[in-house]
Design a protein that fits this description.
Layout (H helix, E strand, L loop, with lengths): L1 H4 L2 H4 L5 H13 L5 H4 L12 E4 L1 H11 L15 E2 L4 E2 L1 E6 L29 H18 L7 H14 L11 H12 L1 H6 L11 H5 L1
Antiparallel strand pairs: 1-4, 2-3
Length: 211
Amino acid sequence: MIDQHTFLPYYAPFLTTSAYTNARTWMTGSTEAGVRVRCGACTNRVRPPKYFRSCPECGRENRKKFGETYWHRLFQLPGVEVCPIHEVFLEPSDVRLDPLSNRHKYFSAETARLVTKAHPVSSKISTHTILLNLARRFEWLLQQERLNPGLEFLHQRYQSLLTERNFATRAGSIRMADVRQEVVRFYDTELLQLLQCALPVGTGDGWLGHL
């Protein structure tokens, strides 16, 4: 249930080992509440989608195969804007997600008002390609069970990649101006805003500097 039906695999690689272990313990059998708080999800500035979202093509396939459709957890994650299987944009429903109108109510996808017209991703538009690749990476994350390499491993990996690409010196100093310029060039300002990852104008490097 935890690995295949919750968001924990999405957060797991970026938690300390103790935080991840404790989260699994609480979710498995503890009565202690507030797992989202302890994973940092509540204080994260990147918010979930405002409404439950669906893929029109997935909805059609679900009804054909199961007789009804359902909410896909991948589509409710921040940063996922397209369906990696059908390569179409996700569509908002009429069911509020952030915040939930009632945390203890079951919101059926079958009874929700869902968009049925699909809007395909264009391979000729670079931002569409980036969003598709991001969705595929998030899908891969959700398929990993107990992936928690630890923050020290991530730090070393980032440092190694930055050094390989000449964004860091051998001594470990980061050329932040160059990193920032490349991030903005690759994603562009509008896409960063869509992903809730806009960088501050002027001084400071925001989340990029903290990372």
